[in-house]
Write a structure and sequence with these properties.
heterodimer; A: alpha/beta; Rossmann fold; 3 domains; 6-stranded mixed β-sheet; 5-stranded parallel β-sheet; 22 strands; B: alpha/beta; globular
Chain lengths: 627, 179
């Protein structure tokens, strides 16, 4: 026999933007088809919240204060233990989502069972009470209408909700009826319970507005609300209801029900509730009062002070004595509070951190005009040079036949003989002393700013390329002597304020090395020893010489000697020489000189076997990207 | 014809949509697009929840460019999206409070896919927030035992996105030829 298919769960999504909502809906319509569907908050069986989001806190509080409480699925990266919720770890997997829905289904089934029993008990109690006190309703209830005022209850845990429901059913049966939020004419909420602030804000924001009755042990002055003292008395609630919707009470009823708020206040202040009266909440008689203060914030303060008290209500309510706090519940509640507080603290810390970083970034360019600060010169740095354009862009070295491997030994250069060496010395000094340093020469002055790792040079690339290739060491003494490195006070320098003149250090050094190299390798590198890359070069901000990416990819997998790279990739040696020179200059390429390290690093690498089809595809993508 | 995909992922605001737009040969289809007339006949709003672009190759082959939704809660979609993917482009917003945490989260979430294919990381918003630096990203990755291309990227710049995807291709196959 086939089992009856279970009805699809209805889910309300909270604190999600449009895109997130659509995605979740798509997920539920496809992967979870038939298991759950997204509906409005009013229609939903369960709530779903991603508690990692800032806005989720209010949503969570709102959902937790819902009466009756319905299953809440919370999504989070970190394991959390929030009472009355079903946790689902992110990244969310389909099977986890289904398991969460099954857990929600179980909760709903349990709630249904409890409600059925409760309903039966309520009916029995009503019958018994009416038999014992046939005149009670006539004394207390005011016949408002056949249906009664429609009220919705908020900010209450299950026990509190049940107690107030019993009270209204028994004492004000003909005056009010408890309905859903959607149908209600009046909202009633308990301000002493956790989440009351959220519920109140929710009610106050309702359009069109409707009367709000707030119940509290302490006198509250909140604009737009009607205050009822806790423990709630029949007269007090009646007075509040009449104030909320006067039109529902006829003149006769007003006379008989004594809805004079002020006079009632005085009379009830000293009245101790009798055991026969149904009292809701703790016994601390206070007047019924309508109020005018705008101090909504007071509610939060009170909310905090009442945390312990509110959670005592989760135990079976004692009608005529103050219930003892449940240590377990208080502890759990404190965990929830701590989680919320931690979230807020973390958010603040993030804000502060971001602020500090932004400030620091701004500080480094205080000498640049504000408009200029927004410019980004870096995009001009990245350029891909193909084989055809290589010689034209890089320049040629005469006297070396790169096609002859025997001549490779002499195809090197010493940066110290070139402008590159002086720039590197400048950078080294600036970093050591953490001060801005100026390199003066027969050419343009160069300033290096160690904090922002930037070079300031008032020259274009064409001029730099020309000067980079000049062997300074071979020039007359007078020219080399004029090279000087000295600390510089930026404030006193009449330097250009054009941000285009500022260049990232690595971007600058990389291209300076390329133009100095002209296809040779740095003399410090030994052709016999393998080299390796510590990290990928930041290619989007560098001159990309021919095959640079291939060389980088190869050297990221394992160390290789320079001739080996030439051989493996079957490319011109100049392309390898220039790459290793530039990478070495910015410090991301190193050479292994000890045999031990060579053995250690030269771990056998499994050749990556790509299918010919895939290899062809990657190549076609590459060609497409390179135009 | 085979369906090849390149997946773009990263936190909200990292520039996934912009990056795909930069290299797509067709106007981007994204989640905010209104439903087409045909779709409207069935329901009011479309539920497409990812960015989608196409790169047309010379031989008529199409490379599908998919951008995952940024919110972490939608990572259940990632398994579906990555099926048949060539590789992953991870974009990180450097102005976020903890970009390393984002990086670890996405690398961890896509670890299976990355192990089978490859990943390249583009760091956006570096002009807004220079820290952490690219070097610090590499240090962080090395502590995780990873050697991944990490580039500064302006997602609006086609060249930046192109270089990032090229690096992904080369990291997938270092022996790849250039023409």
């Amino acid at each position: 026999m086939k089992s009856k298919p279970s009805k699809s769960l209805t889910v309300a999504l909270h604190a999600m933007d449009g895109r997130s909502r659509k995605t979740m809906m798509m997920f539920l319509q496809t992967t979870c088809k038939g298991i759950a569907q997204v509906v409005s908050e009013q229609e939903a069986d369960i709530d779903m919240i991603d508690i990692d989001l800032m806005g989720a806190q209010a949503s969570l509080e709102h959902c937790l204060s819902r009466v009756p409480l319905r299953p809440i699925i919370v999504l989070s990266l970190q394991p959390t233990d929030i009472e009355n919720t079903i946790f689902m770890q992110k990244p969310a997997k389909v099977e986890n989502m289904i398991a969460a829905f099954q857990a929600a289904r179980l909760v709903l089934a349990q709630q249904k069972k409890v409600a059925k029993i409760k309903s039966h008990h309520d009916n029995m109690a009503t019958k018994a009470q009416s038999l014992l006190k046939p005149d009670l309703r006539a004394d207390t209830a005011v016949a408002v209408s056949d249906n009664g005022l429609k009220v919705a209850l908020y900010g209450m845990d299950e026990q509190t909700y049940r107690a107030l429901t019993n009270f209204l059913h028994n004492k004000l049966q003909d005056v009010v009826q408890i309905v859903t939020e959607h149908e209600a004419e009046v909202d009633i909420l308990d301000a002493d319970l956790m989440g009351a602030k959220t519920s109140l804000e929710h009610c106050l924001a309702r359009k069109p507005a409707r009367p709000i009755i707030i119940i509290s042990q302490e006198k509250l002055n909140i604009e737009g609300t009607i205050y009822v003292n806790s423990p709630v008395k029949v007269d007090g609630m009646l007075a509040a209801l009449q104030k909320a919707v006067p039109s529902k009470f006829n003149s006769d009823n007003q006379k008989t029900s004594a809805i004079d708020v002020e006079s009632e206040t005085e009379s009830k202040l000293v009245t101790a509730p009798s055991h026969s009266d149904f009292v809701f909440g703790l016994k601390k008689p206070l007047p019924v009062e309508s109020v005018t203060s705008t101090a909504v914030g007071n509610l939060r303060k009170q909310e905090q002070s009442n945390i312990e008290k509110s959670f005592t209500r989760q135990t079976e309510p004692a009608l005529d004595k103050k219930p003892k706090p449940s240590t377990k519940n208080v502890a759990k509640h404190k965990i929830v509070q701590k989680q919320i507080a931690d979230t807020l603290v973390a958010a603040e810390a993030k804000k502060e951190s971001l602020h500090e970083v932004t400030e620091l970034a701004a500080e480094t360019k205080v000498y640049v005009q504000s408009v200029e600060q927004k410019k980004v010169a870096k995009h001009q740095a990245a350029m891909q040079i193909n084989e055809q354009g290589f010689s034209g862009f890089i320049g040629l070295v005469e006297g070396v036949d790169f096609n002859d491997p025997k001549q490779w030994v002499s195809a090197n250069y010493n940066p110290k003989h070139y402008y590159q060496g002086y720039v590197q010395s400048t950078v080294k000094i600036a970093y050591e002393k953490t001060i801005a340093v100026k390199l003066s020469s027969a050419w343009k002055p160069l300033i290096f700013l160690p904090r922002s790792h930037e070079i300031l040079l008032d020259a274009d690339d064409k001029q730099l390329r020309a000067f980079a290739g000049v062997n300074v060491a071979s020039m007359p003494i007078s020219t080399t002597k004029i090279m000087s490195i000295a600390p510089v006070n930026i404030a006193h320098e009449s330097i250009a304020t054009d941000l285009e003149k500022f260049q990232d250090l690595n971007t600058f050094l990389w291209k300076l090395a390329c133009w100095t190299s002209k296809g040779r390798y740095i003399a410090a590198l030994d052709l016999k020893h393998p080299v390796y890359l510590k990290q990928w070069p930041n290619f989007t901000r560098l001159v990309i010489t021919p095959h640079a990416m291939r060389i980088a990819a190869l050297l990221m997998t394992e160390p290789r000697t320079i001739p080996d790279i030439v051989q493996v990739l079957k490319i011109k040696p100049q392309y390898v020489f220039i790459f290793v020179s530039a990478a070495y200059t910015i410090g991301i390429l190193e050479q292994i000189n000890s045999q031990d390290k060579i053995d250690e690093m030269a771990k056998p690498v499994k050749p990556v076997k790509k299918k010919a089809q895939k290899k062809g595809l990657l190549k076609r993508i590459l060609n497409k990207l390179r135009g | 014809m085979s369906q090849y995909k390149i997946i773009f992922t990263g936190p909200v605001g990292a520039g996934k949509t912009t990056a795909i737009s930069s290299i797509s040969d067709v106007p981007l289809i994204n989640t905010d697009a209104v439903a087409s007339d045909m779709t409207k006949q069935r329901k009011e709003g479309t539920t497409v929840a990812m960015d989608y672009g196409i790169m047309n190759l010379n031989d008529g082959e199409k490379i599908h460019l998919y951008g995952t939704p940024g919110q972490e809660r939608f990572d259940f979609m990632w398994d579906i999206l990555t099926t048949g993917g060539i590789g992953l482009i991870l974009l990180l917003d450097n102005s976020r409070a903890d970009p390393f945490l984002d990086m670890k989260f996405f690398l961890n979430s896509f670890d299976g896919f990355i192990a089978k294919t490859g990943v390249a990381i583009g760091v956006t918003q570096m002009d807004v927030s220079a820290n952490p630096s690219i070097e610090e990203y590499h240090q962080n990755l090395q502590s995780l035992g990873l050697k991944i291309p990490v580039f500064s990227v302006d997602a609006r710049e086609k060249n930046d996105v192109s270089i990032l995807v090229q690096a992904l291709m080369f990291s997938l196959d270092p022996g790849l030829d250039e023409e």
